[in-house]
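Troubleshooting: if your tokenizer reports a length mismatch, compare your output against this known-good record of 289 residues.
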Amino acid sequence: MCRLFGLSSAPLRTHATFWLLDAPDSLSRQSHRDPDGTGLGRFSSDGTPRVDKAPIAAYRDRAFAEEARRDESATFIAHVRYASTGSLDVRNTHPFEQDGRLFAHNGVIEGLDALDDHLGEDRSLVGGDTDSERFFALITRETRRSGGDVTEGIRQAARWIAANLPVFAMNLILITPQELWALRYPDTHALYVLQRPAGGRHGDRHLDHSGSHGRMRVHSAALAEHPAVIVASERMDDHPDWRLLEPGELLHVGIDLHVGRHIILPDPPAHQLTLDDLHPGAAASQKAA
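Known-good structure output:
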């Protein structure tokens, strides 16, 4: 199953270090198949998106994912990919960038010919083969049509897909230089949020999150003194305030760390897929590690 991670400390720019595959956990890692790609996105001080990503494809490019990547941003997005559609190629590796926004997705959307038809000329936004980048293109188009309102763009895109295409899951994280959005839909995969006070649970601790099986680790000394909001596919520490998003819940973290939440998809997809409906490669990519 793909792993999603998003962090906002807006408006403060925070130094954080990411290991997209945590090298010290090698014994645990060896008992699980390698991921198909890893990526980290953030923004420079002038708001320019910056993305580092690579396909893993067995042992190749592992050094990229194990290397400590330290940078500064008010928002971050990270993704560990298990491919369901699209070849093992940089162009199919998350996060994706469109209109100065960064996006990563966990799930499977089918009926891609119908989605391409619906996108029309906006299919040109898509550089790869994945359902994820097509979903992002639809969000981008609907956001443009809504005058730059990202919340409305996600709402309209997600509702169209839920009503018209076969869906297994479409969890997402989307960031701009100062804001973060996250959607969990339906209840197939978990997505958690933590509103972390300065210093964490005990008030004096830096952030040091580590996902299970050595898949992702994040460290930030700066967050010993500043609050943050974190979204992740799993609880990444023992803090008691991790909250599982509701199915259909769209979370928005504003520039002042204000968290808003709306149930934008109260009903299951019109064409809900199960693991048994997916082709073997897609089904394997969606199973929990």
